[in-house]
Structure prediction request, 567 residues.
Amino acid sequence: RRKLYKRQLSESVAAGFLKEGRAMSLCKRILGGKLACDLEDFGDRTFKRNYSSDSIKGHVENSVYYWEPKSLRIRTINWWHVFLAEYLPYAYHTAIAVAVVLLVARTWYGRAEDFMRAFRLMQEPIVMQVVGVAGLLVAYASHTKPTVYCIENLVFAPPADWQVSRQDIQKCCQAQGCFNEASIDFQKRLLDNSGTGESTHWPPGILMSRDGETPSECHMTAARDEAKEVIFALVRELLKRTKVKPQQIDFLVINCSLFCPTPSLCALVCNEFCLRQDVRSFNLGGMGCSANVISVDLAKQLLQNSPGSQALVISTENITQNLYKGNEKSMLLQNTLFRCGGCALLLSSKISDSMKAKYKLLYTFRAQVSDDNSYNCVYQKEDEHGNSGVALSKDIVNVAGRAMRQNFVQLAPYVLPIREQAKVIWNQMVMRLVTRAKKRKWPLFETWSVPKGYTPNFSKGIDHFCIHAGGRAVIEGVQKNLGLSDRQIKPSVQTLYEWGNTSSSSIWYETDWIERFGDIRPGERVLQISFGSGFKCNSAVWVALRVDHSKRGVPLKREIADAGKQE
Prediction:
């Protein structure tokens, strides 16, 4: 009897498993894909849970807590994200299928009077108009990407003990004991003509040479300490101002051209501020002084593909390990021009954030000039003695002009009014007509000269200009090409004087200056133009939504000094 009972029990259990397997197979054929795999996994877990003889529980051994891997998965999964990403489409498909089935059933079992009533209703003009408008709205909404907003923007204000004068920079260079007299004199002339002021900033690793005797510490630890000081201060203040928790950040983008440690700077931020484990981080290196617009453009693509998300963008450059200690003139410019700095932006694609955002991103444009001269005009290399540095070509201004021309060809149709665009088209037509007539020797055009190309007045479509503070030559070259006034380039000139070339973050120091002294108003457009190695010219157009009146007329350095006194 006992053997017979065991045999019957095993047969019944096997039959149950067979039925369950057939049902699961049927679900696989009907549903397929992710949902079928989830059902199969659920069935396996149910079987193990029901028939497991011993359940594994957490326990402590040698002051270490061990837990079942299943509990780890449940604890770390963001179920709302999983629902939106995986199961919400299945909910839509199910709802559509149910609606179609109900419609077919109603059609099959319906009466002729119902069809006639529906037909007469569709002949009503108001119904057709409502259906047409609804269809247009659905089509527009399905093809429109969400708007990207800048909730807050910050620039890094270095501590007072980081401040250096031109004399301090010369002493720091003399303390290295590697520059000859010609190089020291050359760097002095560069400093005098650089357009930088007497209160820019260098990192502590180099400033220990301010006495003119102590060599600088340019090792990895000092460089990482500089990065921590800049990035942590920016992120901490940004989160404080916006009242956003680190766990609410969906995307993290950091660009630093010359310092790319392992672990990355993104990992450094994630570790310090405990960002979510599923945060998408991107660390950009080697992109030069134009990297901020590249980071913003990357964040824009990510936010538009994930509506309702937020991105943290950080731009900085590391000076500690990039002090050139050789005597090649083309590589000495970096010692006299680049300074410490950084910026942080909180971007969002949430519609609700439009009420508190400072800017709305309108356009981003990128141009890459790829010929050999452009590629080599900003080039990191080693000199004949093995000293690493960045060589800047004499043609950098001409290369920047060509790259900017390519970028503005993309930009102009979006920001220029119709009148300016018509002038450009008319100028091109006249130039071609006169050129062709002179080649064919038409009598009426023998005395005519080919007109010059018309440079449109970008002030008609842009209210404020932020030109990368890469040096006096770069700023004046852009001013000449665009026909800008001294007032329009003043944000760039003042930023270069007060902060130096802070690399990719310089355009946001200029934006901060405009917020304080540029009399910016809601609805006005801000154009940011940046140049970088490669050679690249990138631009971004923002429209102001909210003005921080507490900044009006208050210099950033005075604001820092007042804050230090209060502390």
User: Anything to note?
Assistant: The two ends are 88 Å apart (CA to CA). The CA atoms of residues 103 and 109 lie 10 Å apart.
